[in-house]
Fold Acetolactate synthase small subunit.
Amino acid sequence: MNATIPTTSHYPAAPAAEVSSSHTLSVLVDNEPGVLARVIGLFSGRGYNIDSLTVSETEHQKHISRITIVTSGTPMVIEQIKNQLERLVPVHRVIDLTVAGPYLERELAMVKVRGKGEHRVEALRLADAFRARVIDATTESFVFEITGKSDKIDQFIELMLPLGLVEVSRTGVVAISRGPEAM
């Protein structure tokens, strides 16, 4: 006679490994000296990485700036980041655009490519396909201006590598929620 013995454990199951994902945070702050350093200090002091960072004054009369931060982490880490940002004194509001609803994000890059002959022609053809504009040209090089999502810019840069890519300068991500409501 064979009896089946149930296999139960007295130990709780280990939590499943949470998946890290990229999040775009929009942070409204007072435009005053030291605010950006405090925000950056929060990230570096806790070992969080910043993938992209842009900041600019958005409401001149109210002295308000918007900081757009792209960072990665598990849902728990992202929640910690948001909570810690909200506790900083000059911070008015923190919105995780990734989960708040539909939003738009763009980045600008200037891409310098050196080449002659067929490489030049191919660089111009690809630039046209990606809707990149020529903003500087010499007999041996081009500087292209391209805007769009970061992955589009990454693809353009990757295609320019074998054609003589010399230098890249990128702005970082800017983002805004869609629809008529303000953040």
